[in-house]
TrEMBL record:
Listed CDD domains: REC (cd00156)
Protein name: Response regulator receiver domain protein
Gene Ontology biological-process annotations: phosphorelay signal transduction system
The organism of origin for this protein: Salipiger abyssi
Signal peptide, first to last residue: none
Stored InterPro entries: Bact_response_regulator, CheY-like_superfamily, Sig_transdc_resp-reg_receiver
Amino acid sequence: MTDSDGLSPQPRPTATRPLLGMTVLVVEDSRFACDAMRLLCLRSGARIRRADCLQSARRHLMVYRPTVAIVDLGLPDGSGAELISELVKALPRVSVVLGTSGDSFAEDVAFAAGADGFLAKPVESVALFQNEIIAHLPEERQPKGLRMVADDPIRPDPLAYRDDMAHAADVLSDDGDGRMLDYVTRFLSGVAHSAGDHLLQAAAEDLAEARAGGRPVKADIARLTGLVQDRLADRLAI
């Protein structure tokens, strides 16, 4: 199944909703980042579907084919680059495959995997979001004429950030799994970067550096865990 069910006429893009009639699959483990994508799609006229890991994304893709796939590079069960590589080789091909991340090196990884484009987190501009998708659509699907964009910044729901903190707290409580510790460190660094939570971002990056350098990490884990718990204790964490 594609993003059209074939039973009803496809909505046509408009000047204010240039992605009308399209479906965007967002493969993203952060609820805060996904809420930003939801708002971007809403303002652009696109439908959104969400998968929070590679396994979930592959299940979605067995059932339907979206117009656009936006894939985070750091996922709990592997690298989003794996999925990007699969998507660009699959037939029929998803029209637009974009990578996304807050890591500085991730853009190169996404393009090496075959991505059409890249969205650096945080994605707050409706115009940037629309332009990156439209630029890579087949010419026959690109909206014609002028577009009208109210480009006030996207503001995701702060409670979605709290959901991310709850997820991180669950992972941090299992301190015997080094792979998941590396995952949650990257996860928190990216989420904190998107939310402008510089203290939490610095703590996550310090833990990552300690692990990469083979140094003791007990104190860094305790610091990071404490900051996560502080944000869970405050209903509006940001």
